Amino acid sequence: MKLSMASSPHNHNHKNLSRLMLTVIAACIPGIIAQCYFFGFGVIVQLLLALITASLSEALMLSIRKRPVWPALSDGSAWLTAVLLAISIPPLAPWWVIVIGTVFAIAMVKQLYGGLGFNLFNPAMAAYVLLLISFPVQMTSWTPVTSLLAQPLSLADQVTLIFFEYSANHQDLLSAMTSVDGTTMATPLDTLKTAVSQNFTVTEAMMGEQFTAFAGIGWMWVNLAFLVGGLFLLKAKVINWHIPVALLGTLAFCSAIGFIIAPGSHAGSLFHLLSGGTMLGAFFIATDPVSASTTNRGRLIYGACIGLLVYLIRNYGGYPDAVAFAVLIMNMAVPLIDHYTQPRTYGHGVAK
Amino acid sequence: MDSLLEQIERGTLWQFPGGVHPPQQKSLSNQQPTARLPLPDKLVLPLKQHIGANGQLLVKEGDKVLKGQPLTKPTANWSLPVHASTSGEITAIKPLPSAHPSALPELSIVIAPDGNDTWCELNPVSNLHELSHKTLIDILHNAGIAGMGGAGFPTYIKADSHQPIEFLIVNGVECEPYITADDLLMREHAKEIVQGIEVMQQLLKPQRILIGIEDNKPEAIAAMQQASTHNTKILVRPIPTKYPSGGEKQLIRVLTSKEVPSAGIPADIGVLVQNVGTLFAISEAIYKGKPLIERVVTVTGNTIGKPQNVWALIGTEIKHLLDCQGFTPVSEQRVVMGGPMMGFTLPTVRIPVVKTTNCILAPDNQELAEPGDEKACIRCSACADACPQTLLPQQLQWFAKSKDYDKLEAYNLFDCIECGACSYVCPSEIPLVQYYRVAKAEIREQKLDQIKAERAKERFEARKERLEREQQERQNKHKRSTSRAAKPDAEKAKVADALTRVKQKQGDKSAVQAAIERAKAKKAADGSLEPDNSEVALERARRKEQARQYKEQKHSEDTAVNENSNESSSKKDAVAAAIARAKAKKAAQQAEQQSEPPQHAQASDSDAPKAGDDPRKAAVAAAIARAKAKKATQQAEQQSEPPQHAQASDSGVPKADDDPRKAAVAAAIARAKAKKAAQQAEQQSEPPQHAQVSDSGVPKADDDPRKAAVAAAIARAKAKKAAQAEQQSEPPQHAQASDSGVPKTDDDPRKAAVAAAIARAKAKKAAQQAEQQSEPQTEPAPQSEDKSDSEPQTPEQKRQAAIKAAVAKAKAKKQAKEQEGNDPS
């Protein structure tokens, strides 16, 4: 009788890579729904564009690298990158923005470094930064929440705006972004930054109709939706608590201190936690296992440093939001952090 | 804060980090009582079923053995006996596949059972307390008991711990899925296990005995609690079910909060762990006198018709167990010895149950799926979260793949217990444990190589030191002789004495010859055992030779004054004859050797005619030619490169032709060179550079007849130095130093003679050294030389005689060498 040989262990918990990736994608769904509700269906178009581009560029790169295409493509990591990038950019950004970003993320940041597991940087965030620097206008053109639009945007309008940069009712993107009172509106973070730079107080800035008592309309709910998704990931043990807790804790702590010292020029903790890409970054971006720290102590340091950098850049930097920059900077520090946060192995450091 | 003991008494448990919860699958096999199997057709008993040395065979093929009879006898430390598991006949003793992941053949005893199952005589013990510590240890040793939890560590070693034991921990955890052997043993034989515990208690005298059992075995817990109620030191501790809490280190942590130091053993922290199966075997050995010949094995898995625990005789083939329990193999069937987490797949079912075999698992492909393809590591660190040893498996994996052994050790690879928790949780299905096993083996191998290399280095350095020491001793000898030379008064007197003696023996070559012969004879007689004696004798001969040379030199001076040049024709004839002889000889030798004629020999041929103007020169030229021919012969014999410096110094010879006195010098130089070349050739090595450098000094010495002697001395010294340098790779500094010392004595002819004597002594010594380390030379060339030499009868008989004497000396020396070289062989 021929017996099959295998190396121990002979059992596995049946959690595999693609299941892991698909769980993360699934956890994005509440956030995507919230985005659709507040900013229209543009995000769905962006998602489709990103998924298709990611699949094609991943397949192309794999075949160029002479690797089997389907096993790598089916692990879902490329799709996750595509989803994360698509929900990070303005929903009505022109189609070529997301295409360029996705190709860059997959082909350059991931595959050219050796594929999954070998990339030093978070592909979605590297692509986001590339787009932000290359196409600052398109990348900051967030439409006001639907309820504040002068003219509601139909799905057809959104699609034609994405593909042709004009639609039947609007000459261009700018006019589509015009709100009820005839002014164009930026994101809450942007608005606040501009207001503070013009010597308005935070309270005055937040008097605007795009704000609720503590954050931007819509943005607050989108962040809360990503928080729900993140908690699901924690519950499913897909991610560890260390990075999100350290990141959010540091951001909340810093903004609280800033608010206590100079409430006029510094927004409070809740505003920071529920604005921009905070929750998306904390639970979905910074927790990317490949580019994050791998030890638990290291993850606390990594998360805390991202939180601190986000706060510093938002308040004192040139950009309204900072999750992408903070993550990329800390990606570079990961090998160092890992080196100095090796845990104590059993039987070491005990008296013999 | 309570003391540790109080906390333990109160039932406090601690946690270990990591761990996993694989499906238990225990109910598959723990529903039926342990079964007894029919006797198998044959039993295969490997001599080595434990950690340690093999026992010594007590039986041979064809012997009849009884059940429980020892088949091997423990010899060295850590060796255990094996016993016949049933009565029968030994049919073979040969290497057979072992119960090891490699299945490498181990020497095994094959028994054909006779079916009677007849026990040998047993010596049960009734009263434990009457037995001494040593007697108990011996019983455990002779019963062949090894740790039955998996490692197979000899129990008698553990039981004889010299470190104080605070806690004896009884491992009934059985954390591996599927396995229920210990569970059933505890349920069915709790009393015997407690008896075994009490044996260990008497041996080790621990403060407390902690029985750790996972809380998924309530019946076993109850049975053990009931059996141990009479002993207040025994505490049964149900612990949470988590793999691998049955690992020794993890169990110690859970029950006592202590950690075994890395690379240490539990006894280092006053803890000793024994498996329940081992304790049962101890009880059987003491109270029933039975050696370890059977154990409980769980036969389970979805392909087994009747999964349950069985009493299996040690040596029963797995096939027998599977057949008895109804085995229906599937495609790509795996048969695992051990559990699903740490067990190993068997290449064949013809492998015996050994003392450490606790489970045979034959799963189908659904319950334990075949591992998927290895994917890229995404550094999710799920492995680190699962690791009970708090390692970073993910980092280790990268280092193992890149064979970064230093990093692997820095990240504590050797603290890995290979529990498999990391591989179990890895989403990329990387066989992490396999990487670690390979890396560990490679590192061990590398360390062995390092140790080997270090030993070789030590040996080399010891040798170097010894050679240096020897050289130092030689140097000291030289210093002694040099200091003698430096004492001018005493030495001058000696030289004068020698000179007078030589004058008395003027023309009497035979005296010199006789001296040489004496020396040779002596040397041949006592070999190289007493070099000092022969040295003295040779030195005497040399001194005579030196004196003779001096005389010859003087004589040639005299004749130079007295002689007329009108006899030139006859002289020329003699020269021509000499040249012809030399050439003929050379041709003959070349033909003999069938080798390339050394270039410098040709060069010296062209030198010879130039010397033809003078009959005296002719004789000299003949001598030179012969010396060169000899040198060429020797070189050719060795088939080695002609030493460059020899060629260089040849060019110095023609310059010496101007003066008849110089002729004698030239002859001396030629002899010296010949000797040097011979020695170098013998060593078959490259000519040392420094010899070449000092050669350039020779022509300069030609200006003065007194210097001539010096030059000769230098030449000889060089010869010696070259020989020494070849013996030891490094040129000895002192030789150079003493060389430079020689020219200083140029002022005085007597000093020159002294220097010459010293040089000769050195040359001789060098020659001896060279002889000791060189191959014997068997070259008949000297005989032919002899013939040609004896032919000519020229008017200058005296001078010729002198030259002949020199040649004879050289030959004699060579023959002496040959003899010596031949003698030892």
From TrEMBL, chain A:
Keywords: Cell inner membrane, Cell membrane, Electron transport, Flavoprotein, FMN, Membrane, Phosphoprotein, Translocase, Transmembrane, Transmembrane helix, Transport
Membrane topology: Multi-pass membrane protein
GO cellular component, one term: plasma membrane
GO biological process: electron transport chain; transmembrane transport
Compartments where located: Cell inner membrane
Cofactor(s) needed for function: FMN
EC nos: 7.-.-.-
Residue stretches spanning the membrane: 20-38, 44-62, 69-89, 120-139, 211-234, 241-262, 268-287, 299-316, 322-340
Signal peptide start and end residues: none
One Pfam family, short name: NQR2_RnfD_RnfE
Modified residues (FMN phosphoryl threonine): T187
Keyword Glycosyltransferase tagged: no
Reported function: Part of a membrane-bound complex that couples electron transfer with translocation of ions across the membrane.
Assembly description: The complex is composed of six subunits: RnfA, RnfB, RnfC, RnfD, RnfE and RnfG.
Family of this protein: Belongs to the NqrB/RnfD family.
Stated name of the protein: Ion-translocating oxidoreductase complex subunit D
The organism of origin for this protein: Pseudoalteromonas byunsanensis
From TrEMBL, chain B:
Subcellular location: Cell inner membrane
Main location: membrane
Keyword Iron: yes
Names of the cofactor(s): [4Fe-4S] cluster
Entry membrane topology: Peripheral membrane protein
Residue ranges, annotated region (Disordered): 15-34, 462-825
Extent of Polar residues compositional bias: 24-34, 640-650, 682-695
Cofactor note text: Binds 2 [4Fe-4S] clusters per subunit.
UniProt cross-references to SUPFAM superfamilies, sorted A to Z: alpha-helical ferredoxin (SSF46548), Nqo1 FMN-binding domain-like (SSF142019)
Example GO molecular function: electron transfer activity
Pfam family, one: RnfC_N
Coiled coil: none
A GO CC annotation given for this chain: plasma membrane
UniProt family annotation: Belongs to the 4Fe4S bacterial-type ferredoxin family. RnfC subfamily.
Function, in words: Part of a membrane-bound complex that couples electron transfer with translocation of ions across the membrane.
Protein name as annotated: Ion-translocating oxidoreductase complex subunit C
Organism field: Pseudoalteromonas byunsanensis
